[in-house]
Sequence to fold (309 residues):
Amino acid sequence: MAILYADDPADAAAWAVAIRALAPGVELRFWPDSGPADEVDFAIVGGKAPGDLRGFANLRAIQSTWAGVNHLLADSNLPFDRPLARMVDQGLTVSMTEFIVLHVLDSARQGPRLRAAQRARQWLDLDPVAPGTIVVAVLGLGTLGADAATRLVALGFSVRGWSRSRKEIAGIESFAGSDGFKACLSGAHILVCLLPLTDDTRGILGAAAFAPLARGAVLIQAARGAHLVEADLLAALQSGQLSRAVLDVFAPEPLPVDHVFWRHPQVTVTPHVAAITRPGTGAADIVENYRRALAGETLINQVDRAKGY
Ligand code: NAP
Fold:
């Protein structure tokens, strides 16, 4: 019986320390040194498999260290008939909330205008904007969206959220389904995307999403690159419907060096660093899921392959 670590080799030592601290007796192997294939009963992967994992006949389950599993669900190197768990990690959730709050506050406090004024040595007399007058629409009210939205409520913003099913979260106006999409976006000043990438959400950040927003709205996109219709974003920035976009994720990654976003004055590019799983906090669910896999139990955060997340 062995766990095969088949994620980023650079993180292998940290994961090994964190997993062994919780489960000292566990046998850990590291891709591509898997040992006898029939001894591997659990695999840890990242955004995609490093090679063909279909030959492990006794593999009970696969654990991703990433929250988003869209690449894994389409990965032909993985067996499609084994349970797959996505990562929910307190460290990752906290980092994503920091990223969203950072950029919402930067917009609310008119950071881009102030930085431009400094470059021009201009003493800008700005009136403060009360956060309650700023409407933030969060697409995706799951683990990450709900946490970020809750923090924004605590900071006094007017927060709406959109999800497949309606939510009851204190202070957040909840919208659901295709009927609720436009209502959630209508008049919003800041649009945050924390949706999983599925067939239903691919290309969702396009002209139809930007049109109902308040003129000059800001997009904060930290979900998956393929949510965004790049041409529609550029047109919305050009027309003034959007004033600015903060983009952490791209299709493809890394963002090509000649891409227009790198030097666009209204676009902030960050290299998919909004939130990263931390082994110290992420290992607990992995160890528990290993136990569950061996016991034939449903995994924590088991992916619903039909829903795609
Ligand atoms: P999650 O807990 O699965 O939440 C997903 C949310 O999206 C849920 O509220 C879900 O609605 C909603 N949703 C899904 N499909 C929908 C649809 N068709 N219409 C309306 N709402 C829909 O996921 P999470 O852990 O919050 O992560 C969200 C995404 O963040 C990940 O999938 C990943 O792509 C991205 N991410 C990015 C980074 C980064 O560093 N940039 C790091 C981690 C994750 P229900 O609640 O009704 O199911």
